[in-house]
Amino acid sequence: MYLSRVEVDTANRAKTRNLTHLGAFHNWVEQSFPAEIAAGTRQRHLWRLDQLAGKRYLLVLSQDLPDPAGLLRYGVAGMVQSKAYDPLLARVQAGQLMRFRLAANPSYRMKRPGERQGRVIPHITAAQQRKWLEDRAEKAGFQLVDQQDVDDDAAFSEPAFDIVSRDWPMLHRKQGRGARLIRVTFEGLLRVTNTVTFRQTLTTGLGREKAFGMGLLTVIPVN
């Protein structure tokens, strides 16, 4: 697997004028794998938009290397980076402490009498969104670490993660209108509890709307 990153060319408005909704970013990612399109074998690609130091980046996790020219369709020249992801996966160990970043779509399905599938309802408050992540941690192979576990001088126990951004990006744009999705970005500390499950979470994502920039969990081991 490969983790790739490219800076979005936000300074060139003419170049990026079509990037007004998540569907356009999804199309950008898909078009960056022309060999899959030609073979008719589309793979699922996890992706995420990051805002760092005033710059915007597209991050893509994929089974195969993306086409650099495809990533430069809306990217800054010379700012495409790709690295093998398998070495990180191989180093994952139970008990390992890691810093994480996750952009997700905290939501739940509500069924009414007579409905087969029900409606997907977004979690609105920060407390609901934090609990959404807390409720999924164990099944995803990790534990959200308390501050006391990290800092012996902490006066009280507090989960060492937080919400760093919340917004409602447009899913598709149609005649100036379109549906929107809740997007919440979490950052903090976690501890791996189940190696196999955690590796699967890293490669398949967490939560709904993965095709539209949600669910990609990235980590950095804490020495």
Written account of the structure:
By secondary structure, the protein is an alpha+beta fold. It is built from seven helices and eleven strands. The strands form three sheets. Strands 5, 8, 9, 10 and 11 form a five-stranded antiparallel sheet that branches. The longest helix is centred in the middle third of the chain and has 12 residues, at 126-137. The protein is globular. The mean pLDDT is 89.
Q: How does the overall form come out from the CA principal axes?
A: globular
Task: State the assembly state of the protein chains.
Answer: single chain
Order of helices and strands: EHHEEHEHEEEHEHEEHE
Structural class: alpha+beta
In round numbers, the mean pLDDT is 89
Q: How widely separated are the two ends?
A: 24 Å
The share of residues in extended strands comes to 25-35%
| Rg for CA atoms | 18 Å
Helix share of residues?
10-25%
**Major sheet summary line:** 5 strands, antiparallel
Task: Enumerate the spans where pLDDT stays under 50 for 5 or more consecutive residues.
Answer: none
- Helical segment tally? 7
Number of strands: 11
